[in-house]
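Dear colleague,

Thank you for sharing your sequence with our group. We've completed the structure prediction you requested, and as agreed, I am returning the results in plain text so they can be pasted directly into your records. Please verify that the sequence below matches your submission; if there's any discrepancy, let me know and we will rerun it promptly.
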Amino acid sequence: MVKIDSTRSPLTWALWLTGLLALVGISFWFISATASAQGISPTVGETDVTADEVNQVARELWCPLCSGVRLDGCELKACDQMKEIIAIKLSEGEDTASIKSYFVDQYGPQVLGAPPLEGFNWLAWILPFAVMIGGGVFLWLRSKHWMRPAAALPVESTPRAVAEKSEYERKLDEELKRYG
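Please find the predicted structure tokens below.
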């Protein structure tokens, strides 16, 4: 609880109160100047841009903080601020391409969710298709090889002599004669 000193004059209290109000006023001015320098307008809710229009642009952008989450489905406060920026830019008449380029400048190409079609990034677009085609050709060639009938083993035209038979073959012949 604040204890009021009754020994001070009303002029002292007036000066103290004026200084406090000036400090609060300067603080609000500084906050609003910082927000306008960042392109954030306090009148976002008063624009004629609908949430559907904002989400239409947000569907084409990805959250720079989450991996694999589109901006329209992200629940982070940073994504809400990005949607507010989209609303401001749409109300100023900017098109989707310029808004997307603004976010690419701010957060890098990962905000697009797909690599741009330039330079080394072409590999990200071409390589998956090349691997699929190469794998299909490999499987087709291997299946042709697997489905080919096996070559017949050469058969001797004359039976070997009994003396040439191995010990195992002789024992096998004896067993077969006993049971056969």
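Summary note from our side: Helices lie at 10-37, 51-58, 77-91, 96-107, 122-147, 167-179.

Kind regards,
the structure core
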